[in-house]
Amino acid sequence: MDKLRTTNILLLVIVIPLIFYLLKILSFIFVPLVFSMFIALLFLPIMRWLGKKNVPKFISIVIVVLLIIGGLKIGVELIQLSSKQILNSDTEFFSKAEVKLDSLFHLAQETFGFKLDDKESVLKQFLAKDSLGNTINFIQRTLTMILMIIFFVVLWLAESINIQKVLNSTILKQRHTSLKTFFKIEKDLIKFIKVKFFVSLATGIGTGLACLFFDVSFPIFWGLFAFVINFVQMVGSIITVVLLSIFAFIELDPTSTLLFFIISITSVQVLFGSILEPIFMGKSFSLNVITVLVMLMFWGFLWGVPGLIMAIPITVFIKIILDQFPSTKVLSDILSRNS
């Protein structure tokens, strides 16, 4: 028995790193697959409600797709509104930006010892560094990812891939247990979306109001940007503060107004992103803060930005599965906030 147990442990030590290696190498498949599963879980209650009303499944899928398109349409309208503000702005801003960025980076050059070409402005140098090619590649990868996600979402909703049956046939092996686990995962996912959406909305509103109060241009754009980027766990808050601080440095004079503006937007991010969000996430999913941080770093390393976005749902999914087996219950307790 001891030899068999030792053999199983050794196999586990070999298999687990191999699984994570495959997840990283084949991320172009697993990222849209997992992402689409969470999106499908979010809309499955609507599908079941339409099914009770005797609506054909094909029509139900069309309705869900239209709801998704409607949400995207609202987002596009907000982007267009903020873009019009930017395009209609005074062109003197960009000239002012060049002058201030030059002085800022020349100061950094003297401090840290790196060299920049003095014949061109800093802004032009950064724009000239294969930015067009990188942008095209990024757009291509993003469109490919979106198309794969849409394809997998349709498969999940049409039950070509049935989540509950997959759990029943691969992990849980009991229909009642798999059903209970499936509904638990679905319920917690909706909790995550609610918490993340309202925290991100509050962050965006707070950022936009700070821009409005301190007379920083494009408050709608910055509020929308803060709302969207906040879905990227941890990193999103840092990106918002850094970019908006640089923008304010260009537009505002380096006085106490600039300092108080930076303090204000940092306070908004700290309040909602570093204090309220971890508290609400922990209470909603019974995860301790250390677990949240470790999983964010792990899935961020494995899948990058998509990993940061999906880290909490994946962790909740794993915890719920671990709860179903007495042998792994101790691991679930370690992840819990009461451990």
Write structural notes for this entry:
It is built from 14 helices and no strands. The chain has 339 residues and is mostly helical. It folds into three domains: 1-82 and 132-161, no CATH class; 90-129, no CATH class; 164-339, no CATH class. The longest helix has 39 residues, at 175-213. It is globular, with a radius of gyration of 24 Å. The mean pLDDT is 77.
Overall form = globular
By secondary-structure content and strand pairing, the structural class works out as: mainly alpha
Unreliable runs: none
- What is the count of DSSP helices, taking H or I runs of 4+ residues? 14
The helix/strand order is: HHHHHHHHHHHHHH
Our estimate of the beta-strand percent is: under 5%
Helix content: over 70%
Intertermini distance: 31 Å
Number of strands: 0
Mean pLDDT: 77
Largest sheet: none
Radius of gyration: 24 Å
Number of domains: 3
Essential attributes:
339 residues, 14 helices, globular
Topology:
Layout: H1 2-25, H2 27-52, H3 57-87, H4 92-112, H5 122-128, H6 131-157, H7 163-172, H8 175-213, H9 219-229, H10 235-251, H11 256-285, H12 289-303, H13 305-323, H14 329-335
Helix pairs in contact: 2-3, 2-6, 2-13, 3-9, 4-10, 7-8, 8-9, 8-11, 8-13, 9-10, 10-11, 12-13, 13-14
Sum this structure up briefly:
This protein is mostly helical and 339 residues long.
